[in-house]
Amino acid sequence: MHGYVDCHCHISAADFDQDIEEVVENAKQSGLLALLAVAEHSGEFEKIIDLSQRFPGFIFPCLGVHPVQEVSPEQQRGASLQDLDAALPIIEKYKDHLVAIGEVGLDFTPRYVRADADKENQRQVLIGQAELAKRLDLPLNVHSRSAGRPTIHLLKELGVNRALLHAFDGKPSVALEGVKAGYLFSIPPSIIRSEQQKLVKQLPLESICLETDSPALGPEKQVRNEPKNISISAEYISKVKGVSVETVMELTTQNALRLFPKLKTAVAL
């Protein structure tokens, strides 16, 4: 099983509009077998589906409502049930194409959450999407910034047993609660400059996946990240765990296939 899976990236971002063919080709040349394209809001759902059809067997779509919604480039707010209502008919339309519901979750960063009501709105949006994922028999691709513990506790409370927590910023002890619940954690290239390095040390390899979160969370701040940088995550993990990059590649890809079984069409076993 020679190749990587990028379990969480924003390939539909405007940053890639001008050179998407080149970005995809560079990703393949760097050993990527597949990437999961996550959504943030219903306005980009059709674009993600189009990209998955333009690059079949390589770009796999995940549709969902992110806990933070953009009002304008300068202003963001927490997600509301209205955002979810707008998304549901489109998710329903494309349900057979999806490999996961995402990007969903909680984000309690103070600038997005001004009152308990904002937190509760986000919780309700996540609950709605967790129920949808169960009904469609799909895993969740989860964001949990400044909300690691509340996110994992809510997922467990809801009986979610298939989830990827991307770029987890909570304590390793909280992450290990997620490991016990069967959740996986994806590590972006920014790990080389991150305060979350302890997380990689403590997570078992059987619970780790790779991601780029492109165009964000690259090895350098303020520089566009690309899926081709997936190997930076793998190399870092191999050093910390004292195993070969090939072992990291094989195990993280096996983990991704276990969580996202629909990827098996792309990855020759």
From TrEMBL:
<feature type="binding site">
    <location>
        <position position="10"/>
    </location>
    <ligand>
        <name>a divalent metal cation 1</name>
    </ligand>
</feature>
<feature type="binding site">
    <location>
        <position position="103"/>
    </location>
    <ligand>
        <name>a divalent metal cation 1</name>
    </ligand>
</feature>
<dbReference type="InterPro" id="IPR001130">
    <property type="entry name" value="TatD-like"/>
</dbReference>
<comment type="similarity">
    <text>Belongs to the metallo-dependent hydrolases superfamily. TatD-type hydrolase family.</text>
</comment>
<feature type="binding site">
    <location>
        <position position="213"/>
    </location>
    <ligand>
        <name>a divalent metal cation 1</name>
    </ligand>
</feature>
<keyword id="KW-0378">Hydrolase</keyword>
<dbReference type="InterPro" id="IPR032466">
    <property type="entry name" value="Metal_Hydrolase"/>
</dbReference>
<dbReference type="Pfam" id="PF01026">
    <property type="entry name" value="TatD_DNase"/>
</dbReference>
<comment type="function">
    <text>Exhibits 3'-exonuclease activities and apurinic/apyrimidinic (AP) endonuclease (in vitro). Show preferential AP endonuclease activity on double-stranded DNA substrates and 3'- exonuclease activity on single-stranded DNA.</text>
</comment>
<dbReference type="GO" id="GO:0046872">
    <property type="term" value="F:metal ion binding"/>
</dbReference>
<feature type="binding site">
    <location>
        <position position="166"/>
    </location>
    <ligand>
        <name>a divalent metal cation 2</name>
    </ligand>
</feature>
<feature type="binding site">
    <location>
        <position position="8"/>
    </location>
    <ligand>
        <name>a divalent metal cation 1</name>
    </ligand>
</feature>
<feature type="binding site">
    <location>
        <position position="143"/>
    </location>
    <ligand>
        <name>a divalent metal cation 2</name>
    </ligand>
</feature>
<protein>
    <submittedName>
        <fullName>Putative deoxyribonuclease TATDN3</fullName>
    </submittedName>
</protein>
<dbReference type="GO" id="GO:0016788">
    <property type="term" value="F:hydrolase activity, acting on ester bonds"/>
</dbReference>
<keyword id="KW-0479">Metal-binding</keyword>
